[in-house]
Structure formats: C-alpha cells, structure tokens
C-alpha cells in the first residue's frame, strides 16, 4: 500500500548517515502520497485521519529507510523492505493483518493494459488532439514531480556544507546522493534556481570560496572545484565530477535566460 509512494520518492541513498539527512527523502515520500489523490481513502482504510496518517507514515518510512536503505524491485533487500513496511504499519496503526491485507489489495499497483488506438480510423484533427492530450499529461506529471521535489527539499539547506547563494530557491535536494548505473553513490547534491545573473553568482562564490578554482566550459557552464583536473571535461569525466565537491552555475537559456541554475555537490 505504501510502497508505490516510497519508490517514487527514492533517490538511491546510503544507509549510514545522520538522522537529519533522511528528512528530504521522507518529505518527498509524503509529498508523493499527498499528491496521489488517495490520501483520504488510505487513511480511512486504516481507520485514522489524514493528519494522523501522515504523522505515522513518516515514522514508518523513516524506520524502514534506516534499516534497509533503498531496496527497490529486483534488489536483494526488497523482501526485507516489504516485511519492514508491513510490520511497521501493523505496529503504528494498531490494525490486524486482515485489515492491512484488505487495504493493500484495495490500493495495490494496478497494471494498466492500454488498448492501442486504431490510428488509421482517426481523422487528422482527432490524431492531433490525441497527441496534444498525451503531451499535456506528460507535462502535468513532470510538473507534479518537480513541485513535490521542491516542497520536500525546502528547509533542508542547513545540511549543505558549501555556501548557498542567498537569493536563490532550492529546487531539489538529494541529501544521500544518487546511485549511478554501477551501483556506487554520488556526493549529496542540491539544485537551486535564482533570478540573478551567472556573473553575479560567480562573483559571490569567488568571494566565498577563494581556495577553489573556477573554469568556464562549453555550453555556458562555470564550475568551482578545489582542484580542477587537467583536461577535465564534466561530461566525459562524469564519474569524477560526481565524486568531487563542486559548484556548477549555468543559465539554460543562455544570456537571454531569466533564471540561473546552481548545483552544489558537497561532502557531508
């Protein structure tokens, strides 16, 4: 019942860390649950209010994260994570196994089997409308994910051990790092957005981090590191880049952009 929302929130974190650094993950799991449209029904199913459910849900998620990290489908620890979630649900909500099983069945992930539309039977106008609807649905899903990530990250800036630019908003915070394809973890990383120019933000970090080197790269990226390796390329050397504390500053729209992105990768 809870796992779909937990899986949606997982940012591939390590299991050894200080307690505060679990908060962004727990916040994100809660945000996904709130935005799912099922919170009221799930709370009712286990016989509690929405507010009480959220409070206990946070305890369930935190306990199982601390014990089992980020076990996803196919991971060795998946069964242990499932057992933990079930055990904690029974304990926190003081419900019977039968009640929990009924709720799990009611809110289980449904495998949606979509019927492929007969495009040949659609007029050009109908086909264009269908494409527009699918694009809009995709945009809405992405917007929901971004807003959930932002809401979950707000208030976690104190965990970041490099300077945070004062006139910026946190957009995402992976306080445990992210898992690479080979299973290793990146450094913790946070992303911010600011209406100030790239030049102004660079000047701030030159003052705040006088011992860091700064270099401009193709595409308008400005990167601060304590030591930038010779012939370093942030794309070709991504494994190195993700393992070294750094500040990256760039504007997606170039000089015409009214928003600057700041990425901070830091040591705990």
How big is the Rg?
22 Å
Helix and strand run: HHHHHHHEEHEEHEE
Strand order of the largest sheet: 1-2-6-5-4-3
General shape:
globular
Low-confidence stretches: 6-19, 110-114
The amount of beta strand, in percent, is: 5-15%
What is the SS-derived class? Answer: alpha+beta
Count of structural domains: 3
Number of E-state strands? 6
* Number of contiguous helices: 9
Describe the main β-sheet briefly: 6 strands, antiparallel
Q: Between the first and last Cα atoms, what is the distance in angstroms?
A: 33 Å
Name the average pLDDT.
77
The helix fraction, in percent, is 40-55%
Gist of the model:
The chain is of the alpha+beta class and 268 residues long.
Structural topology:
Layout: H1 3-9, H2 23-35, H3 39-45, H4 50-68, H5 78-93, H6 97-106, H7 124-153, E1 169-174, E2 189-194, H8 198-208, E3 213-217, E4 221-225, H9 238-241, E5 246-250, E6 260-265
Antiparallel strand pairs: 1-2, 2-6, 3-4, 4-5, 5-6
Helix pairs in contact: 1-2, 2-4, 2-7, 4-5
Structural write-up:
With 268 residues, the chain is an alpha+beta fold. It has three domains: 3-106, no CATH class; 119-153; 160-265, no CATH class. 44% of the residues lie in helices and 12% in strands. The protein has nine helices and six strands; from the N terminus they run H-H-H-H-H-H-H-E-E-H-E-E-H-E-E. Strands 1-2-6-5-4-3 form a six-stranded antiparallel sheet. Strand 3 and strand 4 form a beta hairpin. It is globular. The two termini are 33 Å apart.
């Amino acid at each position: 019942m809870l796992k779909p929302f937990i899986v949606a929130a997982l940012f591939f974190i390590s299991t050894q860390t200080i307690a505060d650094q679990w908060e962004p993950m727990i916040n994100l799991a809660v945000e996904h649950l709130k935005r799912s449209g099922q919170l009221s029904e799930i709370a009712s199913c286990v016989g509690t209010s929405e507010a009480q459910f959220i409070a206990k849900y946070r305890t369930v998620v935190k306990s199982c994260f601390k014990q089992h990290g980020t076990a996803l489908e196919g991971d060795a620890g998946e069964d242990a994570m499932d057992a933990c979630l079930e055990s904690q649900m029974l304990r926190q909500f003081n419900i019977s196994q039968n009640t929990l099983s009924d709720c799990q069945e009611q809110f289980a992930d449904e495998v949606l089997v979509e019927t492929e539309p007969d495009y040949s039977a659609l007029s050009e106008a109908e086909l264009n409308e269908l494409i527009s609807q699918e694009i809009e649905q995709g945009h809405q899903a992405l917007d929901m994910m971004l807003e959930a990530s932002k809401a979950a990250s707000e208030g976690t800036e104190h965990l970041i051990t490099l300077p945070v630019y004062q006139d910026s908003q946190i957009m995402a915070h992976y306080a445990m790092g992210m898992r690479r394809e080979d299973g290793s973890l990146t450094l913790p990383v946070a992303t911010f957005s600011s209406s100030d120019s790239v030049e102004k933000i660079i000047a701030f970090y030159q003052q705040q981090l006088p011992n860091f080197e700064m270099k401009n790269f193709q595409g308008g990226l400005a990167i601060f590191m304590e030591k930038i390796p010779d012939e370093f390329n942030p794309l070709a050397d991504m494994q190195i880049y993700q393992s070294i504390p750094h500040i990256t500053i760039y504007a997606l729209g170039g000089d015409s952009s009214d928003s600057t992105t700041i990425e901070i990768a830091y040591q705990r």
